[in-house]
Amino acid sequence: MAEKKILMLVGDYVEDYEVMVPFQALLMAGYTVHAVCPDKKAGEVVRTSIHDFEGDQTYSEKRGHNFALNATFDEVEAGDYDALVIPGGRAPEYIRLNKKVLEMVKHFDNENKPIAAICHGPQVLTAAGVLKGRECAGYPAVAPDIEAAGGKYINLDMDKAHVEGNLVTAPAWPAHPDWLAKLLKVLGAEIKI
Predict the structure, then answer these.
(1) Domain ranges of the chain
(2) How many C-beta atoms lie closer than 10 Å to residue 147's C-beta?
(3) Model pLDDT for residues 51-62, shown as the tens digit of each residue
(4) Which of 60, 71, 85, 149 gives 20 to 30 Å between its CA and that of 120?
(5) Cα separations (Å) of 146 from 1, 84, 137, 140, 184?
(6) Which residues are catalytic?
């Protein structure tokens, strides 16, 4: 496999599983993955939060781990990457306020490069204006954002993912097996056992 590079956009209180699991799984699959956060540099960390489904009206939230960034946001160029991953948690609600984040998302969309977003990650896609007329899954609380941005919200079981063209989206971390498998397929990877 020729080296493929994936850019992961994160921020403080990104969902723990949604950053840790894809980061490690994509590295295991042979990809170079650069995790960046606006206003932070390689070697710095973001704090994560753990969202759990415990029978309440919405998820519960607990403090997670520190996740080390391995690239510097101000130094990365979207054109150097083959795909974009946007984990959920609380980070998407504020990283979408960063102009460069939105420009990066638009680049990946304009170039028809794979974009994978999970849980609240589609909030970044809505702010970038890339969902008009397109189908997108996400955490149910993000459905109004997706629809207000002109997209069609796809209501899935929490362990399922949805693909439309270059977009691979899912409602939450229980979908990791399906979401990551679909992302790998969109990336053109083939895993044989």
Answers:
(1) 5-187
(2) 14
(3) 888 888 888 889
(4) 71
(5) 35, 18, 9, 10, 24
(6) 119-120
